[in-house]
Amino acid sequence: MQEQNVEERKAIDLMAEVAGKAVRLAGDPSRVLMKLQVFDWKSVEVLPQREVEEVLTGVLNQGPISLAFVPYVQQFPLHLLKEKWSTVSK
């Protein structure tokens, strides 16, 4: 959001749009890898779970896309998000 100087909702929608374009170009969502940042480097804080969930939902609405959460930080509850990507219809 900060890099593009956009509000949260627009950034979330942009991630879903990028994922959709990547799926169309690749022809298969399983050939797409989306990197989701879970850490704010400026504030040195883990992003709010709600924000990451919204991005994740938008991305996974494009299909069973591969995911990379960066950087790995123990404070971020990835285990609580597992249901988001394990219920994507194939």
Structure description:
The protein has one domain. It is built from three helices and four strands, in the order αβββαβα. Strands 1-4 form a two-stranded parallel ribbon. The mean pLDDT is 84.
- Could you say which structural class the secondary elements and strand pairing correspond to? alpha+beta
Enumerate how many helices there are, as a single number.
3
**Overall mean confidence score, pLDDT:** 84
In helices, the fraction of residues equals 40-55%
Radius of gyration computed on alpha carbons: 13 Å
Order of helices and strands: HEEEHEH
Spatial strand arrangement across the major sheet: 1-4
Helix-strand layout with pairing:
Layout: H1 8-26, E1 33-37, E2 39-40, E3 45-46, H2 49-60, E4 66-70, H3 78-86
Parallel strand pairs: 1-4
Antiparallel strand pairs: 2-3
Helix pairs in contact: 1-2
Question: Notable features of this structure?
Answer:
alpha+beta; 3 helices
Summarize the structure.
The protein has helices spanning 8-26, 49-60, 78-86, and strands at 33-37, 39-40, 45-46, 66-70. It contains 3 helices and 4 strands, in the order H-E-E-E-H-E-H.
